[in-house]
Amino acid sequence: MPPSPTPAESTSEEDVFEQKAVRLAKRERLIAERADAAGGAYPVSVPVTDTIPALRERFADLEAGEETGVTAGVAGRVVFSRNTGKLCFASLQAGDGSRIQAMVSLAEVGEESLQSWKELVDLGDHVFVSGQVISSRRGELSIMVTEWAIASKALLPLPNLYTELSEESRVRSRYLDLIAREQARDAVVARAKVNASLRRTFTDHGFIEVETPMLQVQHGGAAARPFVTHSNAFDTELYLRIAPELFLKRAVVGGIDRVFEINRNFRNEGADSTHSPEFAMLEAYQAYSDYNGIADLTQELVQNAAVAVAGSTTVTWADGTEYDLGGQWDRISMYESLSAASGRTITPETTLDELTAFAAEVGVEVPAKIATPGKFVEELWEHFVKGDLVRPTFVMDFPLDTSPLVREHRSIPGVVEKWDLYVRGFELATGYSELVDPVIQRERFVEQAKLAARGDDEAMRVDEEFLRALEHAMPPTGGMGMGIDRLMMAITGLGIRETILFPLVK
């Protein structure tokens, strides 16, 4: 193994400008030298026979100084290079971060080829090497190179791989983050495992995956401000989807009794550590279930996803903290937990005036245009209870006036059969016993329209097409929605911008 690496190439603006000029000259030289070769400085292909991770697995037990007699052709990005007189070393990195050493010696490639390596190969280049697989005297798995070629010339230098990139740099240049940081690569793999696990669990329960429109003539399915666009073809205003709910419920009306979708949603709202204007969401609906049954399913979905990533329901976050997602999760009443935490009895019958006075007393504000008893209850609950939740917890039975798509509670007047799942102190998922009565649904939409007229940008509008579907009879149904980005936060401990491969940034 070569000595400890020196710092990677400097990335000051002046150095980058100079290095790009030097590398462009090398590109021109490569084109001239490969005048008869397709692709010039960027060949169409190179004769790869093996991958770096496959070789590392195959020869994991190779002893220091041992030769295999096996010839392999591999390609990778140069992330370390040291040129000495008659022997050059380079570390080639595969996409998954695994590395193999390339040893380019005068004895194996000849003076002209060795000199070309020294003059043409830079950090960041993709290089193909072929030769015998060996273990160096220091025990480093290596290719003793007999032939090589630049597979792709990097015109810009890599950042210093031995200095942590800033979060801003990681987000804005995710490709460099993926090259430089194992955790970034792990997050991509973890997300793929989570999505695969979700689909497996749904398949095991007989669910069907569908796709619903992202461009909609009427926004609905959530309390959120939409993005608005214009269709030239239809000469009409359209909305980017804020939720797939109303279309998935149409599918249930049509007889797809167990349906789910993993989709992209867009909400024209603020961005912070738990919110992104564009995000991935899972929604699912199960006919002849309710909010209790869908809570059971949600717990299974999350726990199976944790096992897929971490091998256990106890996950380890990025900061080293262990968090237990296992066992049976608590289910608490919103009104009861608020009353206990605040020392004030609050029920669905508590008046708006009483709630307004209490909120003012404890410093909780609700804008006048959205001020309803239920909104005050939810804001007070967040003030008194939310911060003390440690374990995953289903918060049950929400105010009726904040839940226009939810069935009224079967035994508690003034509340609906809705839960929110809190993990790590943030809302991860929500679930309902769905409102399937079209007459009551119309009344709820009308009330929402009144809020919209008062200036509530998040209020729903009357959706006649959805009501028409309900009038053809929707069976009793349990439904849930969960943010995939937030599920990744719960499993990995990362912030939302770290869980999204290419987040929106200014």
TrEMBL record:
Q: How is the cofactor bound?
A: Binds 3 Mg(2+) ions per subunit.
What's the catalysed reaction?
A: tRNA(Lys) + L-lysine + ATP = L-lysyl-tRNA(Lys) + AMP + diphosphate
Highest taxon above the source species:
Bacteria
Residue numbers binding Mg(2+) 2: E427
Please name the InterPro entries in this protein's record: Aa-tRNA-synt_II, aa-tRNA-synth_II, aa-tRNA-synth_II/BPL/LPL, Lys-tRNA-ligase_II, Lys-tRNA-ligase_II_N, Lys-tRNA-synth_II_C, NA-bd_OB-fold, NA-bd_OB_tRNA
Q: GO MF terms on file?
A: lysine-tRNA ligase activity
Which of UniProt's keywords are assigned here?
Aminoacyl-tRNA synthetase, ATP-binding, Cytoplasm, Ligase, Magnesium, Metal-binding, Nucleotide-binding, Protein biosynthesis
Query: PROSITE patterns, per this entry?
Result: AA_TRNA_LIGASE_II (PS50862)
| Family, per entry | Belongs to the class-II aminoacyl-tRNA synthetase family.
The record's listing under PANTHER family reads: LYSINE--TRNA LIGASE, CHLOROPLASTIC_MITOCHONDRIAL (PTHR42918:SF15), LYSYL-TRNA SYNTHETASE (PTHR42918)
Read off the NCBIfam families from this record: lysS_bact (TIGR00499), PRK00484.1 (NF001756)
Official protein name in the record:
Lysine--tRNA ligase
User: Which species expresses this protein natively?
Assistant: Microbacterium pullorum
